[in-house]
Amino acid sequence: MKHKLFKYLVFFVMMSNQGFALSIHQIAISRISDQAINISLDTEGEELYYFSSWQYNIFENMIVVEACFIPGFGSTIVYLNNNFEIPINTFDAQVFHLKVRVFYDSFQEENLQDFRDGIFTTPIQNDVVLSSKSANIVDEIDIKFTNPSDGKLFLNHEVNSGRIFDETGRFVDFIREKEKVIDMSNLSNGSYFIFFLGNDGHKTVRIILRKK
């Protein structure tokens, strides 16, 4: 009887692991100091689970953060928040490509559960949030303007985050949340690049500003 009970228990645990689903709910990027940022990771599971370990790699302006979670006990949906400090220069104007990957049980590719891929820039004026994959899709952004432009750009829907750089790559200004009209008329004539940030990547638009 004990032997049969043990067999059923092992079978139940194996089936639970196979059906496990872990996903990224939200990622928030904030500035800690001139030399570090904080990446706040919210994850959601279909059963109780625990944070195990994490690792990161920085190559030029590419940052890869990987977090591993291990099984718990229970059957309710749970959320976890973990914070990771990443040492980068946050003072200079730069564009960073961030990849966040979450694993279940071990850092093996077959155990990869979810990932998020996005762009952020420094200096960080406000927290950069990467939420659900369906939100803030940059490919859906449509911009109406003339080129050369008088400084007014019209968007088809609100954007969550964006940055303006001059032709040398120097940070000029940030686009505030929920803006549908971008006003660059306060800037000097010249060439500028606008980075729109989204969960699925980024979009870059070159503007030649020529005010009358």
Question: Your description of this structure?
Answer:
- The chain has 212 residues and is mostly beta strands.
- The protein is built from one helix and 15 strands; from the N terminus they run αβββββββββββββββ.
- The protein has one helix at residues 2-18; strands at residues 22-33, 36-45, 49-59, 62-71, 78-86, 94-104, 112-122, 128-130, 143-144, 152-159, 162-166, 171-175, 179-183, 190-198, 201-209.
- The strands form four sheets. Strands 5-2-1-8 form a four-stranded antiparallel sheet, with no helix packed on it.
- The longest helix is centred in the N-terminal third of the chain and has 17 residues, at 2-18.
- It is elongated.
- The N and C termini lie far apart (90 Å).
- Mean pLDDT is 77; it is low at 1-19 and 132-137.
Short note summarizing the structure:
This protein is mainly beta and 212 residues long.
Helix fraction bin? under 10%
The number of helical runs is 1
The strand line-up of the biggest sheet is: 5-2-1-8
Average pLDDT taken over every residue: 77
The low-confidence parts are: 1-19, 132-137
| Shape, principal axes of CA atoms | elongated
Count of beta strands: 15
Strand content: over 45%
- What distance lies between the first and last C-alpha atoms, to the nearest angstrom? 90 Å
Helix-strand sequence: HEEEEEEEEEEEEEEE
How much is the radius of gyration in Å?
22 Å
